[in-house]
Design goal:
This protein has twelve helices and 23 strands. The protein is an alpha/beta fold and 387 residues long. It has two domains: 239 residues, Metallo-beta-lactamase, Chain A; 136 residues, Flavodoxin domain (Rossmann fold), CATH 3.40.50. The strands form six sheets. It has a seven-stranded mixed beta sheet with strand order 1-2-7-8-9-10-11. A five-stranded mixed beta sheet has the order 12-13-14-15-16, with no helix packed on it. Helix 5 runs parallel beside helix 7 and helix 10 runs parallel beside helix 11. The termini are far apart. Bound molecules: MU-OXO-diiron (FEO). MU-OXO-diiron binds next to helix 2. The site of MU-OXO-diiron has 9 residues, from helix 2.
Length: 387
Protein backbone atom coordinates (compact mmCIF):
# COMPACT_ATOMS: atom_id res chain seq x y z
CA UNK A 1 0.00 0.00 0.00
CA UNK A 2 1.51 3.25 -1.18
CA UNK A 3 1.01 6.94 -0.56
CA UNK A 4 -0.62 8.83 -3.43
CA UNK A 5 0.77 12.25 -4.31
CA UNK A 6 -1.83 14.97 -4.13
CA UNK A 7 0.59 17.81 -4.91
CA UNK A 8 4.37 17.91 -4.77
CA UNK A 9 5.42 16.56 -1.35
CA UNK A 10 1.83 16.26 -0.17
CA UNK A 11 0.41 12.74 -0.04
CA UNK A 12 -2.87 10.98 0.62
CA UNK A 13 -2.10 8.28 3.19
CA UNK A 14 -5.61 7.25 4.23
CA UNK A 15 -7.50 3.99 4.44
CA UNK A 16 -10.15 2.55 2.15
CA UNK A 17 -13.13 0.90 3.84
CA UNK A 18 -14.39 -1.22 0.96
CA UNK A 19 -16.94 -3.19 3.00
CA UNK A 20 -18.57 -0.43 5.04
CA UNK A 21 -22.32 -0.56 4.50
CA UNK A 22 -23.64 1.06 7.67
CA UNK A 23 -22.29 4.26 9.20
CA UNK A 24 -24.28 4.60 12.43
CA UNK A 25 -27.53 3.93 10.58
CA UNK A 26 -26.61 5.62 7.30
CA UNK A 27 -26.54 3.09 4.47
CA UNK A 28 -23.18 3.45 2.72
CA UNK A 29 -23.63 1.30 -0.37
CA UNK A 30 -20.34 2.50 -1.85
CA UNK A 31 -18.17 2.04 1.27
CA UNK A 32 -15.97 4.92 2.38
CA UNK A 33 -12.46 6.22 2.88
CA UNK A 34 -10.86 7.91 5.86
CA UNK A 35 -8.46 10.39 4.34
CA UNK A 36 -5.21 11.32 6.05
CA UNK A 37 -2.64 13.59 4.43
CA UNK A 38 1.12 13.76 4.87
CA UNK A 39 3.06 16.97 4.15
CA UNK A 40 6.79 16.57 3.72
CA UNK A 41 8.44 19.82 4.78
CA UNK A 42 11.00 20.86 7.41
CA UNK A 43 8.39 19.81 9.94
CA UNK A 44 6.72 16.66 8.71
CA UNK A 45 3.00 16.98 9.25
CA UNK A 46 0.24 14.39 9.28
CA UNK A 47 -3.30 15.71 8.92
CA UNK A 48 -5.86 13.41 10.55
CA UNK A 49 -5.69 9.63 10.79
CA UNK A 50 -8.09 6.75 10.06
CA UNK A 51 -10.56 4.39 11.74
CA UNK A 52 -8.83 2.10 14.20
CA UNK A 53 -9.08 -1.06 12.11
CA UNK A 54 -7.28 0.60 9.17
CA UNK A 55 -4.25 1.76 11.19
CA UNK A 56 -1.95 -0.77 9.50
CA UNK A 57 -2.93 0.63 6.09
CA UNK A 58 -2.19 4.19 7.26
CA UNK A 59 1.22 3.18 8.61
CA UNK A 60 2.09 1.30 5.41
CA UNK A 61 1.19 4.26 3.23
CA UNK A 62 3.18 6.69 5.41
CA UNK A 63 6.12 4.27 5.47
CA UNK A 64 6.21 4.23 1.65
CA UNK A 65 7.42 7.87 1.92
CA UNK A 66 9.15 8.28 5.30
CA UNK A 67 9.82 6.57 8.58
CA UNK A 68 6.63 7.45 10.56
CA UNK A 69 8.71 8.26 13.65
CA UNK A 70 9.95 11.37 11.81
CA UNK A 71 6.51 13.02 11.93
CA UNK A 72 6.66 16.30 13.90
CA UNK A 73 3.02 17.39 13.88
CA UNK A 74 -0.24 15.50 13.87
CA UNK A 75 -3.10 17.85 13.06
CA UNK A 76 -6.34 16.49 14.45
CA UNK A 77 -9.17 18.38 12.78
CA UNK A 78 -11.83 16.18 14.40
CA UNK A 79 -11.81 13.59 17.17
CA UNK A 80 -14.65 11.37 15.94
CA UNK A 81 -13.15 7.90 15.81
CA UNK A 82 -13.29 7.50 12.04
CA UNK A 83 -10.49 10.10 12.02
CA UNK A 84 -8.79 9.52 15.35
CA UNK A 85 -9.11 5.76 15.85
CA UNK A 86 -5.48 5.27 14.79
CA UNK A 87 -4.20 7.99 17.14
CA UNK A 88 -3.18 5.78 20.10
CA UNK A 89 -1.06 3.52 17.88
CA UNK A 90 0.36 6.38 15.81
CA UNK A 91 1.21 8.53 18.84
CA UNK A 92 3.00 5.58 20.45
CA UNK A 93 5.28 5.57 17.37
CA UNK A 94 5.94 9.34 17.54
CA UNK A 95 7.60 10.20 20.85
CA UNK A 96 8.42 13.75 19.73
CA UNK A 97 5.29 14.69 17.85
CA UNK A 98 2.88 17.42 18.85
CA UNK A 99 -0.86 17.09 18.34
CA UNK A 100 -2.33 20.30 16.93
CA UNK A 101 -6.03 20.54 17.68
CA UNK A 102 -8.81 22.81 18.96
CA UNK A 103 -9.47 23.32 22.67
CA UNK A 104 -12.51 21.04 22.37
CA UNK A 105 -10.35 18.58 20.42
CA UNK A 106 -7.82 18.34 23.25
CA UNK A 107 -10.62 17.77 25.75
CA UNK A 108 -12.30 15.13 23.58
CA UNK A 109 -9.00 13.30 22.92
CA UNK A 110 -8.55 13.03 26.68
CA UNK A 111 -12.08 11.60 26.97
CA UNK A 112 -11.35 8.97 24.31
CA UNK A 113 -7.76 7.84 24.81
CA UNK A 114 -4.92 7.61 27.28
CA UNK A 115 -3.15 10.82 26.27
CA UNK A 116 -0.74 10.96 29.20
CA UNK A 117 2.32 11.05 26.93
CA UNK A 118 0.87 13.24 24.16
CA UNK A 119 1.96 16.84 23.67
CA UNK A 120 -0.87 19.14 22.59
CA UNK A 121 -0.76 22.50 20.88
CA UNK A 122 -4.20 24.07 21.06
CA UNK A 123 -5.09 26.42 18.19
CA UNK A 124 -7.95 28.80 17.51
CA UNK A 125 -9.28 30.49 14.37
CA UNK A 126 -6.61 32.57 12.68
CA UNK A 127 -3.68 30.75 14.27
CA UNK A 128 -0.96 29.59 11.93
CA UNK A 129 2.00 27.22 12.29
CA UNK A 130 5.08 27.41 10.08
CA UNK A 131 6.24 23.98 8.92
CA UNK A 132 9.11 25.14 6.67
CA UNK A 133 8.33 26.33 3.16
CA UNK A 134 4.67 26.20 4.04
CA UNK A 135 2.31 27.45 6.71
CA UNK A 136 -0.82 25.76 7.96
CA UNK A 137 -3.58 27.90 9.41
CA UNK A 138 -6.73 26.92 11.20
CA UNK A 139 -10.39 27.88 11.22
CA UNK A 140 -12.66 26.56 13.94
CA UNK A 141 -15.81 24.99 12.49
CA UNK A 142 -17.63 23.78 15.62
CA UNK A 143 -20.57 21.43 15.00
CA UNK A 144 -19.53 20.55 11.46
CA UNK A 145 -19.98 18.04 12.82
CA UNK A 146 -18.77 17.87 16.46
CA UNK A 147 -17.84 20.71 18.86
CA UNK A 148 -14.13 20.13 18.18
CA UNK A 149 -14.19 20.47 14.40
CA UNK A 150 -11.72 22.70 12.63
CA UNK A 151 -10.34 22.92 9.11
CA UNK A 152 -6.72 23.40 8.07
CA UNK A 153 -5.64 25.65 5.21
CA UNK A 154 -2.27 25.77 3.49
CA UNK A 155 -1.99 29.16 1.70
CA UNK A 156 1.16 28.29 -0.26
CA UNK A 157 -0.60 25.28 -1.81
CA UNK A 158 -4.13 26.76 -1.79
CA UNK A 159 -5.40 23.53 -0.25
CA UNK A 160 -8.23 23.33 2.29
CA UNK A 161 -8.13 20.19 4.44
CA UNK A 162 -11.82 20.31 5.27
CA UNK A 163 -12.33 17.14 7.31
CA UNK A 164 -16.02 16.05 7.26
CA UNK A 165 -17.17 19.07 5.24
CA UNK A 166 -17.43 18.39 1.48
CA UNK A 167 -16.85 14.64 2.02
CA UNK A 168 -18.64 11.64 0.52
CA UNK A 169 -18.82 7.98 1.48
CA UNK A 170 -17.19 6.39 -1.56
CA UNK A 171 -14.58 3.62 -1.48
CA UNK A 172 -12.48 3.88 -4.60
CA UNK A 173 -8.92 3.55 -5.81
CA UNK A 174 -9.34 6.88 -7.64
CA UNK A 175 -8.57 9.89 -5.49
CA UNK A 176 -9.60 12.90 -7.56
CA UNK A 177 -12.86 14.32 -8.90
CA UNK A 178 -11.56 14.26 -12.48
CA UNK A 179 -10.97 10.50 -12.25
CA UNK A 180 -14.46 9.43 -11.15
CA UNK A 181 -18.06 10.12 -12.17
CA UNK A 182 -18.89 13.67 -11.04
CA UNK A 183 -22.59 12.78 -10.95
CA UNK A 184 -21.94 10.02 -8.40
CA UNK A 185 -19.58 12.19 -6.33
CA UNK A 186 -22.15 14.99 -6.10
CA UNK A 187 -24.95 12.52 -5.32
CA UNK A 188 -22.87 10.97 -2.52
CA UNK A 189 -21.87 14.44 -1.27
CA UNK A 190 -25.57 15.33 -1.08
CA UNK A 191 -26.30 12.08 0.74
CA UNK A 192 -23.45 12.83 3.16
CA UNK A 193 -24.80 16.34 3.71
CA UNK A 194 -28.34 15.03 4.28
CA UNK A 195 -27.37 12.33 6.75
CA UNK A 196 -24.49 13.95 8.65
CA UNK A 197 -24.35 17.71 8.16
CA UNK A 198 -27.99 18.81 7.72
CA UNK A 199 -28.71 19.74 11.38
CA UNK A 200 -25.70 22.07 11.33
CA UNK A 201 -26.63 24.05 8.22
CA UNK A 202 -26.27 27.40 10.01
CA UNK A 203 -22.70 26.52 10.98
CA UNK A 204 -22.02 25.41 7.38
CA UNK A 205 -23.05 28.87 6.17
CA UNK A 206 -20.35 30.23 8.50
CA UNK A 207 -17.78 27.85 6.97
CA UNK A 208 -18.79 28.95 3.47
CA UNK A 209 -18.25 32.58 4.46
CA UNK A 210 -14.74 31.68 5.63
CA UNK A 211 -14.11 29.73 2.41
CA UNK A 212 -15.07 32.80 0.36
CA UNK A 213 -12.12 34.62 1.89
CA UNK A 214 -9.62 31.88 1.00
CA UNK A 215 -7.97 31.18 -2.33
CA UNK A 216 -8.85 27.50 -2.72
CA UNK A 217 -7.58 25.36 -5.59
CA UNK A 218 -8.09 22.01 -3.92
CA UNK A 219 -10.36 20.68 -1.17
CA UNK A 220 -9.08 17.58 0.59
CA UNK A 221 -11.95 16.20 2.68
CA UNK A 222 -11.64 13.38 5.17
CA UNK A 223 -14.00 11.06 3.27
CA UNK A 224 -14.05 10.11 -0.38
CA UNK A 225 -12.82 12.02 -3.38
CA UNK A 226 -10.53 15.09 -3.44
CA UNK A 227 -11.95 18.16 -5.21
CA UNK A 228 -9.50 19.73 -7.64
CA UNK A 229 -11.49 20.25 -10.86
CA UNK A 230 -14.97 20.93 -9.51
CA UNK A 231 -14.31 22.96 -6.36
CA UNK A 232 -17.01 25.47 -7.35
CA UNK A 233 -19.59 22.67 -7.85
CA UNK A 234 -19.28 21.36 -4.30
CA UNK A 235 -19.24 24.88 -2.83
CA UNK A 236 -22.42 25.68 -4.81
CA UNK A 237 -24.01 22.43 -3.61
CA UNK A 238 -23.23 23.21 0.04
CA UNK A 239 -24.51 26.75 -0.38
CA UNK A 240 -27.81 25.45 -1.78
CA UNK A 241 -28.26 22.74 0.85
CA UNK A 242 -27.17 24.86 3.83
CA UNK A 243 -29.42 27.76 2.87
CA UNK A 244 -32.43 25.42 2.49
CA UNK A 245 -33.06 26.23 -1.15
CA UNK A 246 -35.61 23.67 -2.29
CA UNK A 247 -36.70 22.59 -5.77
CA UNK A 248 -40.27 22.26 -7.02
CA UNK A 249 -40.21 18.74 -5.66
CA UNK A 250 -42.16 16.45 -3.31
CA UNK A 251 -41.04 13.37 -1.44
CA UNK A 252 -43.88 10.97 -0.62
CA UNK A 253 -42.98 8.44 2.06
CA UNK A 254 -45.31 5.76 3.34
CA UNK A 255 -45.89 2.27 4.56
CA UNK A 256 -49.20 0.50 4.14
CA UNK A 257 -50.92 -2.37 5.90
CA UNK A 258 -53.61 -3.48 3.43
CA UNK A 259 -52.96 -1.05 0.57
CA UNK A 260 -55.23 1.90 1.46
CA UNK A 261 -52.41 4.23 2.53
CA UNK A 262 -50.49 3.24 -0.60
CA UNK A 263 -53.48 4.18 -2.79
CA UNK A 264 -53.61 7.57 -1.08
CA UNK A 265 -49.88 8.05 -1.68
CA UNK A 266 -50.40 7.47 -5.41
CA UNK A 267 -53.27 9.93 -5.64
CA UNK A 268 -51.20 12.57 -3.78
CA UNK A 269 -48.45 11.89 -6.33
CA UNK A 270 -50.98 12.55 -9.12
CA UNK A 271 -51.52 16.05 -7.76
CA UNK A 272 -47.81 16.87 -7.81
CA UNK A 273 -47.48 15.41 -11.29
CA UNK A 274 -50.39 17.50 -12.57
CA UNK A 275 -48.87 20.62 -11.02
CA UNK A 276 -45.51 20.04 -12.71
CA UNK A 277 -43.61 19.03 -9.59
CA UNK A 278 -40.81 16.49 -9.52
CA UNK A 279 -41.80 13.84 -7.02
CA UNK A 280 -40.54 10.55 -5.64
CA UNK A 281 -42.56 7.81 -3.98
CA UNK A 282 -40.81 5.82 -1.27
CA UNK A 283 -42.43 2.69 0.14
CA UNK A 284 -40.63 2.19 3.45
CA UNK A 285 -40.82 -1.59 3.00
CA UNK A 286 -38.24 -1.33 0.25
CA UNK A 287 -36.37 1.96 0.78
CA UNK A 288 -33.80 2.96 3.38
CA UNK A 289 -34.42 6.09 5.45
CA UNK A 290 -30.95 7.46 4.66
CA UNK A 291 -31.71 7.34 0.92
CA UNK A 292 -35.05 9.06 1.45
CA UNK A 293 -33.48 11.87 3.52
CA UNK A 294 -31.10 12.53 0.63
CA UNK A 295 -34.10 13.50 -1.50
CA UNK A 296 -35.68 15.54 1.31
CA UNK A 297 -32.70 17.95 1.13
CA UNK A 298 -34.04 19.52 -2.07
CA UNK A 299 -37.78 18.90 -1.54
CA UNK A 300 -40.35 21.60 -0.82
CA UNK A 301 -42.96 19.08 0.37
CA UNK A 302 -42.61 16.02 2.59
CA UNK A 303 -45.71 13.80 2.48
CA UNK A 304 -45.83 11.04 5.06
CA UNK A 305 -48.40 8.25 5.29
CA UNK A 306 -49.15 5.51 7.78
CA UNK A 307 -52.22 3.59 8.84
CA UNK A 308 -53.00 3.24 12.52
CA UNK A 309 -51.30 0.19 14.00
CA UNK A 310 -52.42 -0.68 17.53
CA UNK A 311 -52.05 2.64 19.45
CA UNK A 312 -49.64 4.23 17.01
CA UNK A 313 -48.21 4.01 13.51
CA UNK A 314 -46.23 1.45 11.56
CA UNK A 315 -42.70 1.15 13.03
CA UNK A 316 -41.11 1.84 9.64
CA UNK A 317 -42.84 5.23 9.49
CA UNK A 318 -41.94 5.96 13.14
CA UNK A 319 -38.32 5.18 12.32
CA UNK A 320 -38.35 7.59 9.36
CA UNK A 321 -40.01 10.34 11.41
CA UNK A 322 -37.51 9.90 14.26
CA UNK A 323 -34.66 10.20 11.77
CA UNK A 324 -36.27 13.26 10.16
CA UNK A 325 -36.76 14.88 13.56
CA UNK A 326 -33.07 14.47 14.41
CA UNK A 327 -31.89 15.90 11.11
CA UNK A 328 -34.41 18.76 11.36
CA UNK A 329 -34.64 20.20 7.82
CA UNK A 330 -35.96 23.76 7.93
CA UNK A 331 -38.79 25.39 6.00
CA UNK A 332 -40.42 22.26 4.56
CA UNK A 333 -44.20 21.75 4.24
CA UNK A 334 -45.83 18.47 5.23
CA UNK A 335 -48.90 16.58 4.06
CA UNK A 336 -49.92 13.67 6.28
CA UNK A 337 -52.16 10.83 5.21
CA UNK A 338 -53.25 7.33 6.10
CA UNK A 339 -56.14 5.03 6.84
CA UNK A 340 -57.62 3.71 10.06
CA UNK A 341 -60.21 1.20 11.19
CA UNK A 342 -61.50 2.31 14.56
CA UNK A 343 -58.86 4.67 16.00
CA UNK A 344 -57.32 7.74 14.38
CA UNK A 345 -54.13 7.44 16.38
CA UNK A 346 -51.99 7.53 13.21
CA UNK A 347 -52.63 11.21 12.54
CA UNK A 348 -52.09 12.25 16.16
CA UNK A 349 -48.71 10.51 16.25
CA UNK A 350 -47.54 11.86 12.89
CA UNK A 351 -48.70 15.41 13.76
CA UNK A 352 -46.77 15.23 17.01
CA UNK A 353 -43.60 14.24 15.17
CA UNK A 354 -44.03 17.12 12.73
CA UNK A 355 -44.70 19.60 15.51
CA UNK A 356 -41.56 18.47 17.34
CA UNK A 357 -39.61 18.69 14.05
CA UNK A 358 -40.89 22.26 13.51
CA UNK A 359 -42.32 21.27 10.11
CA UNK A 360 -45.60 22.92 9.14
CA UNK A 361 -48.43 20.49 8.34
CA UNK A 362 -50.46 22.04 5.53
CA UNK A 363 -52.98 19.22 5.02
CA UNK A 364 -54.04 15.90 6.50
CA UNK A 365 -56.08 13.06 5.00
CA UNK A 366 -57.26 10.24 7.21
CA UNK A 367 -59.56 7.68 5.63
CA UNK A 368 -61.77 5.14 7.39
CA UNK A 369 -60.80 1.72 5.99
CA UNK A 370 -60.62 1.56 2.15
CA UNK A 371 -60.81 4.87 0.22
CA UNK A 372 -63.38 4.94 -2.58
CA UNK A 373 -62.38 6.11 -6.05
CA UNK A 374 -64.33 9.30 -5.40
CA UNK A 375 -62.40 9.89 -2.18
CA UNK A 376 -59.05 9.26 -3.90
CA UNK A 377 -59.88 11.75 -6.66
CA UNK A 378 -60.91 14.31 -4.06
CA UNK A 379 -57.48 13.89 -2.37
CA UNK A 380 -55.75 14.71 -5.67
CA UNK A 381 -58.03 17.73 -6.15
CA UNK A 382 -57.49 19.04 -2.61
CA UNK A 383 -53.71 18.67 -2.82
CA UNK A 384 -53.69 20.48 -6.16
CA UNK A 385 -55.57 23.35 -4.54
CA UNK A 386 -52.93 23.95 -1.87
CA UNK A 387 -49.64 23.45 -3.74
FE1 LIG B 1 -16.09 11.57 9.55
FE2 LIG B 1 -17.66 13.37 12.10
O1 LIG B 1 -16.55 12.07 11.32
Amino acid sequence: MKAIEVKKDIYWVGGIDWSLRNFHGYLTQRGSTYNAYLIIDEKITLIDTVKGYLTKELIERISSIIDPSKIDYVVSNHVEMDHSGAMPEIMAMLPNATVITSAAGEKEHKLHYNTENWKFQVVKSGDSVNIGKRNISFVMTPMVHWPDNMVTYCPEEKILFSNDAFGQHIATSERFDDEYSLEIILEEAKKYYANIVLPYSNQVLGVLEVAKGLDIEMICPSHGIIWRKNVSSILEGYNKWASNQTDKKAVIVYDSMWGSTEKMANYIANAFEDKGYKYELFDLKSNHISDIITEVVEAEYICVGSPTLNKGILPTVASFLTYLQGLAPKGRKAILFGSYGWAQQNMKVMERYMQESDIEVVKTFNNNFIPTQEKLCSITKEVMEII
